[in-house]
């Protein structure tokens, strides 16, 4: 983990952090995720979050096109 992440976590009293979002999704204590990444990453992050049975809030636009939205809804 880089020093910037470590110092930011310390500054804001964040107990747990990591660089790999899939590791975060594995956390059973976490019930929900907010997807605020770049639009082209939304589908991947939503589908992965569904695999871990998380409640999801995704920022708009949801995807770049209708097909991406459909894939997310069906996940």
Q: Can you describe this structure in just a few lines?
A:
This protein is mainly alpha-helical. About 50% of the residues lie in helices and about 10% in strands.
- As a percent range, the share of strand residues is 5-15%
**Class by SSE composition:** mainly alpha
Flag low-confidence runs. none
Number of distinct helices: 4
**The top level CATH class name of the domain at 25-75:** Alpha Beta
Question: What would the keywords be for this entry?
Answer:
Rossmann fold, 48% helix, 75 residues, 2 strands, 4 helices, two-stranded parallel sheet
What does this structure look like?
The protein has 75 residues and is mostly helical. The chain has a domain at 25-75: Rossmann fold (3-Layer(aba) Sandwich). Helix content is 48%, strand content 11%. It has a two-stranded parallel sheet. The longest helix is centred in the middle third of the chain and has 13 residues, at 39-51.
SSE blueprint:
Layout: H1 3-11, H2 21-25, E1 32-35, H3 39-51, E2 55-58, H4 66-74
Parallel strand pairs: 1-2
Helix pairs in contact: 3-4
